[in-house]
Amino acid sequence: MKKFWRAGDRSRAICEDCGVVETRFEYRTYPLEKPRVDVPDVLVAVCSVCDRIVAVPYQSSPRLNEARKAAEAPLEARIPKHLEDVLAVVASHYGRNDSEFRNVILRYYLHALGESDALARHIRELASGELARGAADERLSVKVQKPVLTRAWDTARNAGVRSKTDMVKGAIIAAAEDLDSAEGKERRETLVEMAASV
Predict the structure, then answer these.
(1) Does domain 10-70 have CATH number 3.30.360?
(2) Is residue 44 within 8 Å of 31, Cβ to Cβ?
(3) pLDDT tens digit string along 58-99?
(4) Which contiguous run of DSSP H or E holds residue 44?
(5) 41: region left, alpha or beta (phi > 0 left; psi from -120 to 50 alpha)
(6) Is residue 179 classed as helix, strand or coil in its secondary structure?
(7) Where are the chain's structural domains?
(8) Within the chain, how many helices (H) and strands (E) appear?
(9) Which of 42, 47, 140, 192 is the most exposed place for a label (fewest CB within 10 A)?
């Protein structure tokens, strides 16, 4: 049976700042990086020298996994099959034609949309254009951090985007347009960095 730790227990671990140190177990707020969310009351090992969190015991994993799931919302859309091909071409442009990076592209464009009224208006135009039309016979599903999805949808709706499906279609087409447009230069550079790091 695995060892279960309790608040007040002591152990040893490596602290990045202090080296090998004695630790004590405490309940603290733990900051997750992906998604960025603070999880309260997580049992962690704390450095007895500098007081920073240096380890998380196995028994705290379920609580952190639940927080990760709760911080993400599923975004589902029915799109024309050719838009899946468009998204695959965009991913290939960055040297990553896998489903995970396609989701990264979508999440990135939703984040950018939430930060820019101009991009939201452009996505509205693209969503009603010729390339967005066709039988919606493909189901696309991506997990998005709730605050990102909320901000993207609020901005899109304020710009006149009719549905989340239109928001997704417009975002895919915007990503394709950005491959060779002057306006997309900054977004391209960001996606090059993301392709190298995920």
Answers:
(1) no
(2) no
(3) 999 998 888 877 777 889 999 999 999 999 999 999 998 788
(4) strand 37-47
(5) left
(6) coil
(7) 10-70, 72-197
(8) 7, 6
(9) 192
The per-residue pLDDT for range 19-38, each reduced to its tens digit, is: 999 999 999 999 988 767 88
Question: pTM for the whole thing?
Answer: 0.69
The answer to whether 72 and 35 are in contact (CB under 8 A) is yes
Q: Is the peptide bond before 35 cis (omega within 30 degrees of 0)?
A: yes
User: Is 106 strand, coil or helix?
Assistant: helix
| Secondary structure (3-state) at 131 | helix
- In the prediction, which pLDDT does 153 show? 96
Q: 146: closest CA among 118, 173, 168, 114?
A: 114
Give dist(CA 175, CA 109) in Å, integer: 7
Residues 52 and 68: their CA atoms lie apart, in Å, by 22
Burial of 82 per CB tally in 10 Å (0-12, 13-18, 19+): middle
Instruction: Identify which of 122, 114, 169, 120 has the alpha carbon closest to the alpha carbon of residue 144.
Output: 114
Pairing of strands 19-32, 10-15: antiparallel
Residue 18: φ, ψ to 5°: -110, -10
